[in-house]
Automatic annotation (TrEMBL):
Mg(2+) 1 binds at D265, E278. Mg(2+) 2 binds at E278, N280. This is D-alanine--D-alanine ligase. Pathway: Cell wall biogenesis; peptidoglycan biosynthesis. Binds 2 magnesium or manganese ions per subunit. The gene is ddl. It comes from Pseudonocardia cypriaca. GO terms for molecular function: ATP binding; D-alanine-D-alanine ligase activity; metal ion binding.
Amino acid sequence: MIERERTVVVLAGGLSHEREVSLRSGRRLAAALRASGADVREWDVDGSLVAQLRNDPPDAVAIALHGGEGENGSVQAVLELLDVPFVGTSAQACRAAWDKPTAKAELAGAGLDTPDWVALPHATFRALGAQAVLDAMVDRLGLPLMVKPDQGGSALGAQVVTARSELPAAMVSCLAYSDTVLAERFVRGTEVGVTVVDDGAGLRALPPVEIDAGGGVYDYTARYTPGAVSFHCPARLDATTLARLEETALAAHQLLGLRDVSRTDAVVDLDGRIQVLEVNVSPGITETSLLPLSVRAAGMELGELYSALVERAIARRRFT
């Protein structure tokens, strides 16, 4: 429970492609914090944010923003400038995690498995010839490929390419969300999400969630359509693999310098190797999101977890 009736601002919405998802996360988080005794205000993120924070500063901010400024460190940097405590990762670490190629290189350099990839800006395709570059991409990485924006979440602009002829259309779709395309080998296996939290009881991984898309792809529609995907928590994997998943998520969280809460997305491939896809600094909290499933499986309530995170955020300012 909240130590006393804290004033907590939940930031949601904003102007990213994931605005509607963020609003859903924000509403659920606000309700959970209210149930734990907080005085919660829900603020959309726009040009009035700095003035609101200066004129009516809360005890802490809980960020339910997805995409754009909410995950790339911009909002976090403003909160740091204003000395407002907030739940989540620092601005500097957000920037590194937000850029998928940078994060993948960091994780691979530390010995974690991540699908082989290449990241190329739109300008490269224009300057060197799109077809020649696409052919080289397939020759190097093979098929099928996962093509996605180098930044962003909710699988927006991401799709699986199984034939060379599908690549041009996939690139156009991807470039609608980012100026740089990340193409990586598509990994078949069991897709999972592992939430990591540090709420005062020690840094730990919550039970991994298995994502069963019924033979389809866990894309934007599947993520946010109730009933489109089956979830299993804990994942239907042996104890040794579950333990390795948790160890991998903890390692990714620490390597990227993350704080409070994160979610690592991975695939346990057909050979049993754990392939890290990406790491999210602002996991979704909607009715179809993975984090609430993990929290429940761990025997906790969402409000209980975030109340503890709010208290930690406030305590951090006391000692800085």
